[in-house]
Amino acid sequence: EAGVAQSPRYKIIEKRQSVAFWCNPISGHATLYWYQQILGQGPKLLIQFQNNGVVDDSQLPKDRFSAERLKGVDSTLKIQPAKLEDSAVYLCASRAQGNTGELFFGEGSRLTVL
Amino acid sequence: AQSVAQPEDQVNVAEGNPLTVKCTYSVSGNPYLFWYVQYPNRGLQFLLKYITGDNLVKGSYGFEAEFNKSQTSFHLKKPSALVSDSALYFCAVRDGMIKAAGNKLTFGGGTRVLVKP
Q1: Would you say residue B96 has pLDDT above 80?
Q2: Under an 8 A CB cutoff, do B110 and A107 touch?
Q3: Could you give the CA distance from residue B79 to residue B16 in angstroms, rounded to a whole number?
Q4: Which of A50, A55, A103 sits opposite B105 (nearest CB)?
């Protein structure tokens, strides 16, 4: 079974530039998450999708961050314009239907903002 | 609001000795508890979970965890640590009373485990 795919693995940009991250979840997984993991901290949920609908985006900085999952499969997370404090690893995870299942994580996209 | 606390930033243990990583949680409803491990430059990998039933749950790589409702704890344990267990460990909680669609997983800050030969 293929895992959660993310790209790019690494990205370096200057502040005020834009960046986009892509995620392909495990086939058939209805729920998709984007987490932000700042160095030395635990992952923080940015946004949760159920199929192509947003379930929770309460911690997404909507003035600069956006995410979509148009067809209920792949997802894109965009940051525009980036700030220094956005330097982090962006983790995508997916979960099968049901309340008790664990999340499956991709390897993450490491963003450095200079 | 739900939360997870991992009181130790780092745990050092000699190879072959028992390993314990502490976790306490706060949640309104029924706790669904998880442990994940993260190796350098990798995503998080699932180790084990407690949903209901036996308080002692067994997971991958010889790890186990004990759910203690009265102490709201879910400590991770391994009887005999290996050097290869050196990694970052995260405890997480979900509220089992909230329906699946709106049910998010909240992580602790992580504990770095260093197993010395």
Answers
A1: no
A2: no
A3: 8
A4: A103
